[in-house]
């Protein structure tokens, strides 16, 4: 128990240090706030008119939520790669602190960044016409699922950041794979409109399932036109979203911790 308490205390110190870096360099938040706002405005007003108007905006916001917290994993990737490049890992290794604290502090601070981003996105969504039409309990569950997914994606980012050899490589590696995963989903358009193999991937894609789970809990339309999706993931979106996040955590926490131990032992 003493080791657990000490580890959490060390993690809080590292998280506070990361947040202070953002305070000193507020431009670090630009990508996490300006980019999702740009996506909302572009899809809602440039494409929304031909895709369903107000109904499409309510369909869209859940997808933007999921895309945004997934892209926020880039904070973890770049933050850890930057610490590696500047020799901060050597300094952490020399301190009497928990080895897990560096990773848990990084993912914890980035989770707080995601909370701020979700608040901003919610306000932006309300401006363009999105509304929560479900119960308050369902809405709270939806935001909880979203933050669970954000935390899981941060651990994916932690592993990538520790594998990357430089900040420049980390910037590419942290985002390059996210674009196909995000766009081959129902975040912006129905998965049913995609051709065979892409449709199969999109239906089981956690991005799709999280977007559908949020739409279900917020009381937003699952599809703008046509019948609701009938695939197993869509029919069990909330359950599948929880399971997928837990699987991501179960896979990438050990991978990130093992990689950190290798890096810290050099």
UniProtKB/TrEMBL annotation:
GO terms under biological process: response to antibiotic
Protein name: Transport permease protein
Coiled-coil intervals, chain numbering: none
Domain ABC transmembrane type-2: 27-263
Pfam family for this entry, one: ABC2_membrane
Subcellular location: Cell membrane; Membrane
Keywords: Antibiotic resistance, Cell membrane, Membrane, Transmembrane, Transmembrane helix, Transport
Database matches in InterPro entries: ABC2_TM, ABC2_TM_bact-type, ABC_2_transport, Nod_factor_ABC_transporter
GO cellular component annotations of the record: ATP-binding cassette (ABC) transporter complex
Family assignment from sequence similarity: Belongs to the ABC-2 integral membrane protein family.
Superkingdom of the organism of origin: Bacteria
Membrane-spanning ranges: 28-47, 59-82, 103-128, 140-163, 175-191, 237-258
Chief localization: membrane
UniProt organism field: Saccharopolyspora flava
GO MF annotation: an example: ABC-type transporter activity
Topological relation to the membrane, as annotated: Multi-pass membrane protein
């Amino acid at each position: 128990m003493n080791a657990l308490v000490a580890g959490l205390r060390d993690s809080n110190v590292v998280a506070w240090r990361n947040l202070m870096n953002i305070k000193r360099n507020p431009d670090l938040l630009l990508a996490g706030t300006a980019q999702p706002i740009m996506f909302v405005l572009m899809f809602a007003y440039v494409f929304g008119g031909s895709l369903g108007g107000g109904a499409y905006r309510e369909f869209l916001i859940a997808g933007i939520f999921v895309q945004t917290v997934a892209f926020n994993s880039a904070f973890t990737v770049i933050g850890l790669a930057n610490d590696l490049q500047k020799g901060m890992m050597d300094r952490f290794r020399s301190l009497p602190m928990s080895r897990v604290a560096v990773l848990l502090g990084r993912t914890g601070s980035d989770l707080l960044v995601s909370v701020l981003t979700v608040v901003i996105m919610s306000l932006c969504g309300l401006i363009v016409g999105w509304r929560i039409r479900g119960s308050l309990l369902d809405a709270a569950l939806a935001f909880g699922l979203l933050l669970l997914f954000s935390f899981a994606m941060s651990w994916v980012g932690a592993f990538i950041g520790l594998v990357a050899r430089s900040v420049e490589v980390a910037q590419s590696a942290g985002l390059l794979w996210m674009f196909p995963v995000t766009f081959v989903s129902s975040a912006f358009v129905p998965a049913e409109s995609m051709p065979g193999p892409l449709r199969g991937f999109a239906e089981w894609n956690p991005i799709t399932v999280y977007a559908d789970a949020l739409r279900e809990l917020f009381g937003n339309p699952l599809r703008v036109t046509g019948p609701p999706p009938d695939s197993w993931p869509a029919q069990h979106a909330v359950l599948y979203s929880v399971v997928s996040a837990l699987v991501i955590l179960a896979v990438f926490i050990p991978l990130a911790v093992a990689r950190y131990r290798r890096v810290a032992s050099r």
